[in-house]
Structures are given as C-alpha cells and as structure tokens.
C-alpha cells in the first residue's frame, strides 16, 4: 500500500525562504571581504583574518549557542541571531578602519551561530518525522542557491563600491527577520518535544 507523504508545514517554508535570503546576502559580501580589508592599508595576513575571524568566532561560540537555545527557545535565539547579523553587517559597511571591521565581523559570527543552531532545532521540531530528511535537504538547497547566486549578484554591484554589498546583506537579513517574525508561529518552544508529547 502506497504511503501518502505528509505536506511540509508552512513554518518550514518560512525557514527555507529565510535561509535563501541569508545565504544570498552572505554571498554578496564574501568575495569582496579581503579586498575591502586591504583598502585599510593592511597586509595579506590581516586581510585574510577578516574571513578567519568569522569562522573562529562561530567555532568558539557554538557551545554557548546551544545553551542559549536550551534556555530561551529556538525562535528567540533565531530572531536574535538574525538581528545581530543584520546590525553587524550594516556596521561593516560603515567601518572607519580595519580593527572596527574585524570586530564587526566577529560579532556577525556570534549571530550566525545563534541562527544556525536554532534553525536546526526548529527544523527537527517542526518537521513531521517522516519528512525530516526532505526538509533538511530543502533547507540545505536554499543555502546553496544563495551561495551560488550571491557572488554573481555581487559582481554586478562592483561599480557601486565595496561598502554597498554590506548594506544589501543587512537589508536581506532584515527582510528575513520580518518574514520569520510574521509567519513563523510554531517556534516559540525552548526545546524539542519529548517522545511522550509527540508520537509518530
């Protein structure tokens, strides 16, 4: 007997849409980061550190991100992470010097961990058990599409200066915040449901 696939909840499509917007914005700024850092008259090593600091802060803050999700709930940490990324990205666009840019990128790494960890929890909790693999692939596809299209769009913006992509990134994440705030209704819990509260 053929099993009928459960429909994907609307909240999942909200997360997928937000992921596409976030990755699209990140793809805009990623290619120009070292070049932007070099514009502050620093060497190659310090320019590369602008990329490294983001990943390093993500690594160091990951355990704390999980603890925050457990304490305050996925939706709050997800929203908070997106807001931090949006604000830090706009701040990068206004950065007056290299060290300010480095700090703002580090703050962006904290926000990135927050929404990444919480989004995984939301995907698990909001997806029907039989659809979790499918919803994870949709979420991953959205990120990959954003990472592919972002640099292409970024190359079209080169004539507007190296600061403009940061403002566009902040705006796209801001749109993602609005989408999640308006349409994500099922993510307020602090932790995934137990087996006793949710069965197959």
Can you describe what's shown?
- The chain is 75% helix and 0% strand.
- The protein is an all-alpha fold.
For the record, give the distance between the C-alpha atoms at the N and C termini, rounded to a whole number: 18 Å
* Beta-strand content: under 5%
Helix content: over 70%
**What is the makeup of the main sheet?**
none
Structural class: mainly alpha
**Topology as H/E string?**
HHHHHHH
Supply Rg.
18 Å
Query: Segments where pLDDT lies below 50 for 5+ residues?
Result: 187-200
Overall shape: it is globular
Oligomer: single chain
Query: Could you report the average pLDDT, rounded to the nearest whole number?
Result: 84
Task: Tell me how many strands there are.
Answer: 0
Quickly count the helices: 7
Which features would summarize this protein structure in a list?
200 residues; mainly alpha; 7 helices; 0% strand; disordered C terminus
Set down the secondary structure blueprint.
Blueprint: H1 10-29, H2 33-38, H3 44-72, H4 74-94, H5 98-126, H6 132-156, H7 164-183
